[in-house]
Design a protein that fits this description.
With about 260 residues, the protein is α+β, with helices and mostly antiparallel strands. The strands form two sheets. The chain has a five-stranded mixed beta barrel with strand order 1-2-3-5-4.
């Protein structure tokens, strides 16, 4: 097979043999791509940049088996995210979701661009010494975007049981809707529901489908910490039911905050 150039985000990198690495790359053209990176674990290797959370351009080739990386250029390394637990765990959670949602060899349009956008926001947060709560919000919003792009969108427009529009009556503090993971969101406080939202929480959740984080007029993030942790509970429950697993990094992310 002739050599080809591929570009993508490294989601994971594992030892392969004595000196090599097995790299999993998220690409626009081929979905997940698993590649052998020869000698990447040797000191001063020219391929040592094959590490998670690096945006790479690679020259690859090989036979019918596992393709091998011949050359590597790092377009951007998001290593700055490791300076804070919250930004690193948010990034790792998005990487885990990408691994779970994107098939090998089958592209999922939009996922790479969305992950890179969210990583860029996390990097800006580190550089600007922004509040940890923003990392939590980026993780929640990014997860909702990836679930939608990957075919597991959380239905937020209609009650899963009656078909009635989910139009939260802001100011009515008695109104509730419940997450039934096998169905979606249903109006009312349903016994046994995984997560129950009030009207303000549902309104905030619905806004997360937009590109930008929801903010007040002064630029401050909408919603207190407890609400964002509550929405994280919802995302975790949906992932468990429909993706078959929840990102392990969500647990790490919670360590930076109070109990949900």
């Amino acid at each position: 097979m002739p050599e080809q150039s591929v570009e993508g985000l490294a989601l994971s990198s594992k030892p392969l043999g004595e000196n090599d690495r097995l790299l999993t790359l998220l690409t626009d053209q081929e979905g997940l791509l698993r590649l052998a990176v020869p000698g990447a674990r040797r000191p001063k290797s020219s391929l040592a940049g094959a590490v998670p959370l690096a945006h790479l351009r690679l020259q690859v080739g090989g036979g019918s088996g596992l393709q091998r990386v011949r050359q590597l250029k790092t377009l951007h390394n998001y290593s700055q995210l490791g300076q804070r637990l919250e930004t690193l765990s948010a990034a790792q959670a998005l990487a885990e979701l990408g691994l779970a949602l994107v098939p090998t060899g089958t592209p999922v349009p939009g996922i790479l661009g969305d992950v890179l956008m969210q990583l860029g926001r996390l990097e800006e947060l580190v550089r600007g010494h922004g509040p940890n709560l923003e990392a939590l919000a980026i993780a929640v919003q990014g997860s909702i975007h990836l679930l939608a792009l990957g075919g597991y969108a959380l239905p937020m427009a209609q009650c899963s049981r009656t078909g009635e529009p989910l139009d939260p009556p802001i100011g009515n503090w008695d109104w509730r809707c419940s997450l039934v993971p096998s169905e979606g969101l249903a109006i009312g406080a349903i016994a046994g529901a995984r997560v129950v939202l009030n009207a303000s929480e549902l309104a905030l959740l619905q806004r997360l489908l937009r590109p930008a984080l929801p903010r007040k007029r002064d630029g401050e993030l909408m919603g207190p910490e407890a609400v964002w942790l509550h929405l994280l509970d919802l995302v975790e429950s949906w992932c468990s039911e429909h993706v078959g697993r929840r990102p392990r990094a969500f647990k790490l992310l919670r360590m930076g905050f109070g109990p949900s």
